[in-house]
Design goal:
With about 425 residues, this protein is α+β, with helices and mostly antiparallel strands. The chain is built from ten helices and eleven strands. Strands 6-8-9-11-10 form a five-stranded mixed β-sheet. Strands 1-4-3-2 form a four-stranded antiparallel β-sheet, with helices on one face. It is rod-shaped. About 0% of the residues have low confidence.
Length: about 425
């Protein structure tokens, strides 16, 4: 977004400054060349005619004429000289005249030989540039750049406001995948964008609620026929144990589905949780249940989360590691204002091509199925749902020496 904003501002500033700069350069070019000879030479001829007619009397100061024994020096301007002599001749003044370029500054000066052998010297009108011309030009360009930048920043903000609204709405997507409500205020385009986002959010919320109701209803409705099947299986003599085993598996699937929906709907209060103490409590519970769980390096660090939900998520991860990985070790470190919890096991790991699917509901790796380990494949999905709800992340990675490493990262408080 910032890159687009900078590009638009630079484009607008460059366009405005370029146009004004070209116009300024054109004005300076026209002004720097001075007026054309067709305007100045006739005026000089008229001045010289007045001087000739007023002699030998006094010459008024308004004519600004000087007298010398020789003409002005400098390079002869041939075109202007020829034009001046032609005009004087047509006015009946057959006195030689010459127009020279000034040697020390821009401009020209005209000289005419008078009857008394003196030379009348008159300066040709020339528009001189102001003093400190480049300083004035720099100030002029600076004002243009400042004004163009202010205008560009304002209009760029107006242009990219819908994009900023999209970015803000996407960044506020909750763990349930629903967009936050966007206020429908501003210009017509901004209102249209906000209205479209709110419609999308409403449809997403409806779809999510429909999915949760479907899963919860399916899990709940499965309990009744399973209960009847369990009662009937009690009267079977052959394969009764197999029937009861399958019913237990169906019951676990239904319970896991209902728990997943509850985790998406129910959210406990967020508070500062001592992560090290929570890990110790879970480790003691797992050991009492016969799981091979050990604690390695453990630093004291607190995170903001729901105590019950976080405990449930970490328990699911640790049970997964201890069950499928035979044994697991838990490490907790605090670095750069982050709490990093690592759960390492010694199991077969997960094939690399399936790592990105491990958090999907009902996911089971084939070797896990062959081991007849109970579970519905929702433990990791529930854990991920809880951890991300409180602003954390959980990732899986196969260890080089074998086994799987589960890494949970939270912002420390």
């Amino acid at each position: 977004m910032n890159s687009l904003r900078r590009r638009l501002i630079l484009l607008l500033v460059a366009s405005i400054v370029g146009v004004v700069g070209l116009a300024t350069a054109a004005v300076i070019s026209v002004r720097g060349g001075g007026p054309p000879p067709e305007l100045t030479v006739p005026w000089i001829a008229q001045q010289m005619e007045l001087v000739v007619r007023l002699l030998p009397g006094p010459i008024p100061d308004v004519l600004r004429v000087q007298f010398a024994d020789h003409p002005a020096g400098g390079k002869v301007a041939r075109a202007e000289t020829a034009m001046l002599n032609d005009i004087l001749h047509r006015r009946g003044l057959d006195f030689p005249a010459v127009v020279n370029e000034k040697t020390d500054e821009p401009g020209q000066i005209a000289s005419m030989h008078l009857p008394d052998s003196r030379w009348a010297i008159i300066e040709v009108p020339h528009l001189k540039p102001p003093r400190r011309e480049w300083l004035v030009l720099a100030g002029w360009i600076s004002l243009i750049v400042a004004g163009a930048t202010a205008v560009s920043v304002y209009f760029t903000s107006v242009l990219i406001r819908p994009l900023e609204m999209l970015e803000a709405a996407v960044s506020k997507i909750g763990s349930d995948g629903v967009l936050a409500t966007v206020p429908e205020v501003g210009s017509a385009e901004v209102k249209a964008t906000a209205h479209a986002l709110n419609q999308l959010s409403s449809r997403l919320r409806t779809a999510m609620e429909s999915r949760m109701r479907l899963v919860a209803a399916a899990g709940h409705d499965l309990r009744t026929p399973m209960t009847r099947m369990r009662l009937r299986a009690e009267f079977l003599d052959d394969e009764r144990d197999k029937w009861l085993h399958d019913l237990d598996e169906l019951d676990r699937i239904a319970d896991s589905a209902i728990r997943l929906v509850r985790e998406e709907v129910n959210q406990d209060a967020v508070e500062a949780v001592d992560l090290a103490k929570t890990v110790r409590d879970i480790e003691a519970e797992m050991v009492s249940l016969g799981h091979a769980v050990s604690i390695g390096h453990l630093e004291k660090v607190c995170v903001r989360a729901g105590a019950l939900g976080l405990r449930r998520a970490l328990r699911n991860l640790i049970v997964n590691a201890a069950t499928h990985g035979k044994a697991c070790r838990i490490d907790l470190a605090a670095a750069h204002n982050r709490a990093v919890l690592t759960i390492s096991d010694h199991g077969p790991g997960i094939p690399p091509e399936l790592l990105n699917k491990a958090f999907e509901p009902f996911f089971r790796v084939d070797p896990g199925r062959l081991q007849s380990i109970p579970g519905a494949g929702l433990g990791l999905a529930i854990a991920k749902e809880i951890i991300e709800r409180y602003g954390g992340t959980v990732t899986l990675e196969n260890r080089r020496g074998g086994g799987l490493e589960q890494t949970v990262v939270f912002d420390a408080v």
